[in-house]
Give the backbone structure.
Amino acid sequence: MASRESTVSAEGKTILPADVRAALGLESGGRVRYLILGGEVRLVRARSVNDLRGMLARPGSAPLSLEAMDEALAEGALGDVASHASTRASPRMRSRR
């Protein structure tokens, strides 16, 4: 793990070292996001929503319509309710099934 330091100016500005910019794929005008995690800060390249398009695509699979997604979610929710009910039933009730 590489470690780099930079100085923070009175205005709160700092210069990212060249190897840090390269690691993040940043060019002039690029944006960063600060993630505060339990006393530490992680610096990541900011991405727009448009950059996320296709991130979950599976080769050979057609995109799902919103209706198909709603149906899948509903079926999953019903399955969860049914499995939850069967595990919560008393042993006497399960033997009757």
Remarks:
- Residues 67 and 84 are 26 Å apart (CA to CA).
- The longest helix spans residues 66-88.
- The mean pLDDT is 81.
